[in-house]
Amino acid sequence: MMLLSHESPTFSTVLGPRRATVATQGADMDQQRSRPTWSRQIEFTLAGIGCAVGLGNVWRFPYLCYRSGGGAFLVPYLFMLVVLGIPLLYMELTVGQYTRRGPVHALANVCPLLKGVGIASVAISFIMCIYYNVVITWALYYLFSSFQAPLPWQNCNNTWNTPNCTNHATNSSYSSTASQEFFKYKMLEQTSGVEDTGEVRWELFLILLLAWILIYLCIFKGVKSTGKVVYFTALFPYVILIALLINNTQLPGALEGITFFIVPEWDKLLSLEVWVNAAAQIFNSIGIGFGSLMAMSSYNSFNNNVLKDTLMISIINSFTSILAGFVIFSAFGYMSHLQGIPVSDLAVDGPGLVYVVYPQAFTNMPVAQLWAVMFFFMLLCLGLDSEFAMVEVMVTSLMDEFHQPLIKYFKRKELFILTICGVAFLLGIPCVMQVGIYVFQLMDHYTAIVSIMFLAFFEVVAICVNRLSDNLEEMTGKRANIFFRLCWLIIAPVLVTVILIFSIIQFKPARYENYVFPPWAQGVGWVIAMASIIWIPLGAIHTLWVLPGSLMQKLKRSLTPSALDEMSKMPYYERGGKDGYPDIAVISSNIRLTEKPIQTNF
């Protein structure tokens, strides 16, 4: 959504005298009803940090480091941060702030042919917010359990433990630790496979409901309420991480774990998979392609310094990952010391890093309950920030597109947000059944791994073909430097293409531990993936269908920014906004063109 005022002089200069008058009148009518903005710019920065910094920094980054030979992963990770992470985040924030719209309208304006990418990013964010809140549910369950003495995963003297339970970790496939059994048999009550659905875990059901209530209370007032919450949720995790690091470094064996983390195994750098994993971690951690940060930046003031926010969000995100790496690997060193085995032989796998391995480390620490409560409360804060952002994408996009009918039907925006949260809660119920861990793994594999690579690729293609530097100069008075232009035009498209091709070639079906999903479940996974990806070709077909002319003329117009807006045949005054006046978006998209088409700086 573009403000037609002194903030965007380009429109009045290219519209011509008569159409400039229309735009100016529209701007005057909307001066007092412009898009909401952050109360303070620091609130957007903190919200962006909270969105980017999430549970993936605490478990996925250390896990990939561990699997890739420790310090060897840091080299490609930092390289991908510089040439992909920072430039692409800069690109997303620029588009969101310039267009002042959510990802759907922003990408439709930038490249009409690929307008489906915006819809796909909203779809993937909604799918992720459904199962991501389940991880927050687990964190709350562990948080409540941490007030018990002794900790319920501290020994094998519990009703849910099996005869194979052991208090000390081993590499034997016939035994399991107390923390593993608490996760599988107490919290999840895990079934043998996706074929056996089991029953609803009512404890998890109620905690999932509590999690969605927390989300709603934090975002129901829009950016005004979210902006206040992030002061705490974005900053408090660092207090706990630093406290955990100080404690862990004093434990015996911690130095061996930290050494494993920072000293590279150089031969691992020859593996292409390590480089692809590093790039994927940058995409997933910062949130490239999800539309969250683009939606949040649409609430910025038009002249905000985007580069400053880009650097702060991306650098603090990576700093958090590395800080979490020191915390986790110092605990690994302590565990290897207790078990008498090398750090490289510890059994670590995905989410189990947070909910199995680390809780096990607590049991041997002084004041175990205190550290457990602090750690799981930190996970709650990290998860809430990212969940805010994913729900906000859905809300922003639907309000941008259907503001009048939604307000007419729901009366208040708060009730509409409540409906979104309620639907997501209901769709998340399968994840809190006894089969839930398999549903969770299936959704995560086909969303966070399969779908996101396609979205990132098409988003880069859609935006990089346009003149971002001109838009930056209009907003901030400065063009992008040669490094960013080189990354946008050459480096990013090439690298993302290579990553996408490699991901397709090396694709592996979903699995959980040693359980391989049956073909019908894999088919369900592809349906989940297609729920977001399918909008890209559908959007392209629709654009080519509605544009006039021959096929070549349609293709040329579909690559022209704002071509769909120019096609609108409805006079601007026929679509009334609030109080009988046209909405801001209507002014730019519903002027009937009788002379030259409107030009934009994209």
TrEMBL record:
**How does the protein associate with the membrane?**
Multi-pass membrane protein
- List, in alphabetical order, the Gene Ontology terms for molecular function in this entry: amino acid:sodium symporter activity; metal ion binding
Q: Where does Na(+) bind?
A: G50, A52, V53, N57, S285, N317, L382, D385, S386
Where is it predominantly found? membrane
Q: Which domain of life is it from?
A: Eukaryota
Which pairs of Cys residues are joined through disulfide bonds in the record?
Answer: C156-C165
Q: Which family does it belong to?
A: Belongs to the sodium:neurotransmitter symporter (SNF) (TC 2.A.22) family.
Q: Which NCBIfam families match?
A: Na_transp
What is this protein identified as? Transporter
Please give the organism. Anabas testudineus (Climbing perch)
